[in-house]
Structure formats: C-alpha cells, structure tokens
Amino acid sequence: MATNAPDVAANSTVQRILATEIVWLTTLLVLALACVLWLAQTASTSESGHRLLLPQLALVILIFGQTGWLLRDFNPSIDPRHFYPLTPALKEI
Amino acid sequence: MKVPWTGIWSGFTTLSALQAFPDLLGSPALPFTNCRASSQSNYIETNGVYVGLIVIFLAGLGAFASIARRSLLGWFFVGVVVAWVAVYHDLLGLWSALTHLPLVGLLLPTRSCQVVVFALSVLAAVGVDALLPASAPGGLPRSRGSGGLDDGPS
Question: Would you say the C-alpha torsion B56, B57, B61, B64 has a positive or negative sign?
C-alpha cells in the first residue's frame, strides 16, 4: 500500500488526489468563513436560539469535513500476511 | 521527495503548509505516504498538531475576543499555545534549557501535540461564543471588557 518512492510527488495519481484534497479543504474554508458571517449576521439581528443553531451546526459539519472526513478510508487493521507471516522456515515445519 | 519549505523557513515555520493541507506528504488513509520526507518520523508526529484552518481561524477570533473581554480562561489558553510553540520549536533555546531539569529531558515535544490541539479547540469555542449574543443558549455573559465582538447586551 505505502510506496515510499522518492518520486512519489511526480505520480499523476498522487497529484490528482492532492489536487482534489486542496480544492476540498479550500472550499470548506470558504464555506466556513461564510458561515461565520452568517452567524454574526444572525446574532446581530435575532437572538432566537433556533436561528442561531443552524449556522453553528453548519460550522461543526464543516470542521469535521476538514478533519475527521480526511481519514474516512483509513483502515487500521493489519493484513493477515503481516500478522501471521509465513516465513520459509515456518513453511518447512 | 524533497520538502522545499524546510530549507527556507527552518524552525518556526517548518512544515507549516501541512497545517493547511495535511496530506501533502500522504497519509495512511491514502494510497501513498512519504512522511519521512519531513523532519519527523511518521504521520502522527508530522500531522499530530493538525486541527484545520477553520479551527485556527476561530481560535484566532477567540484569542482576540479573550483579549477584548479580559477573560482569564482565554488568556490561559492563549498562554498555553504560545508556551507550546516556544517549547516545540525551541524558540530562544527554551526547550534546550528546560531539558537540564530532572525528568524534563526525558519528555518529547513531538508527542505533546494534544496540548496545543486542545488549547486551540477551546479558543475556537471561545471565538464562536464571541459571535453569539449573551442571551443566546450557551452564550457567556460579558462580565468584563468591551462585551465581545457582537456589541450585544453586556
């Protein structure tokens, strides 16, 4: 899975993944700034808890998108061939 | 892969680009990882301090609001962030001096990311709170200072 190749950045797949992620994170940041403005605007015009809840909820979702969502494909389990390696010596036994 | 910014702004701003885009050197969740290209040894040490630009922005807002409100809680966490940055990056040789104390030399600054991540999270919450009017659910009363950023009732 992990390829520690020195020219990993030149790989077109890597470039595509990084470009997608940079666009994703930048978009979320812009949306979050809009949310902050929305929250400030709502807070200045209304003190209703329900109207204030929506921009706050949106902020929480956007923050999760910038952090937890990045690890959505992370599988911490270990491949059985690494956990129970069958070495040549073991194979002989 | 050579990391271009390490040679230019070594020390304080080393790997700061990873604060914005944490997977520039790959991650265990992607089909590539090359974290050894950084000065750290693995993904957690390279990106453990990542909280996202939104949280950093809100934390800045929170720090500003804390100063405006003269809030002790806010000042404490601003102090924690400043102290952590000074220790982590060995500014003014602070960490090198501290390691002469008994047991302190055994600690690893790269394993202390949770401290600053927690402080930034609290400051971000303070930043959001500064936008809310004091009468809103969860809104803190503006007991001292200028009353926050919203000019709401104090």
Answer: positive
Would you say the ipTM is above 0.85?
no
Asked if the C-beta of A43 comes within 8 angstroms of chain B's C-beta atoms, the answer is yes
Please tell me the distance in Å from B26's CA to the nearest CA on chain A. 8
A1-23 pLDDT, tens per residue? 444 445 566 678 888 888 888 99
Best of A16, A63, A75 to mutate (most B CBs within 10 Å, chain B): A63
Rounded Cα distance, A47 and B16, in Å = 39
Q: Is B24 on the interface with A (CB under 8 A)?
A: yes
Number of domains in chain B: 2
Would B139 be classed as within a structural domain? no
Q: Decide if B32 is inside a domain.
A: yes
Angle of CA points A25, B56, B41, to nearest 5°: 75
What domain range is B28 assigned to? 4-47
pTM reported for the whole predicted model: 0.75
Find chain A residues with C-beta within 8 A of B18's C-beta: none
